[in-house]
Amino acid sequence: MNIFITGGTGYVGRPLIQTLLKDGHIVRGLARRGSEHKLPPGCHRVTGDALDFTSYREQIGPCDTFIHLVGVAHPSPSKTRQFREIDLKSIECAVLATQFTGVRHFIYVSVAHPAPMMRDYIAARSRGEELIRDAGLNATIVRPWYVLGPGHRWPYLLIPAYSLLSMIPATRDGATRLGLVTRNQMVRALSSAVRRPAQGIRIIEVPEIRRLGSDQPDR
After folding, report:
1. What Cα–Cα distance (Å) separates residue 178 from each residue in 114, 117, 157?
2. Does the chain have fewer CB atoms within 10 Å around its N or its C terminus?
3. Is 180 helix (H, G, I), strand (E, B) or coil?
4. What's the pLDDT tens digit per position in 12-38?
């Protein structure tokens, strides 16, 4: 595939680009001026602003797949304004940008919902999903809750509580939907989505992220 990716310098973006390149795909990564060096070697660097679609829309072609990973790092209830100004604004721009191109498959990392917390974060990501649907895009929407990995390990302390909640009928659904996934599982699920373009809208929830992550061998 010929892939355009936003958020490629981030926590999931860098290992995802490395995996896609190993799989033989051509990858173009968007980065702000001065941050281009953070993109992995072998990635074609595109200088632009994810919050201004006119800065990169002409650079998307001839990509057939668009992956949107831009978002606030370490989301918390105190970052309501950033969710609107970064998460929501960037997906608005991404959807607008793809309408000027030949992109056939849009991949969006949203968030698991409903949930009893992080309402503003969920609202921004849910609106992003609506924008994709309204634009009539063929899209894969991936809904993790919390992604474990380097620098993101404290939720490991919650694993015993998750195990208990998953055994109680009244809380089993929520514990499953809002379960923890690893960064490796996310990368594998996203690379699987690249290989299997959606027709219409496909939703990948936490259980499928885990399954897709387990179906592929470690690198």
Report:
1. 9, 11, 15
2. C
3. strand
4. 999 999 999 999 999 999 999 999 999
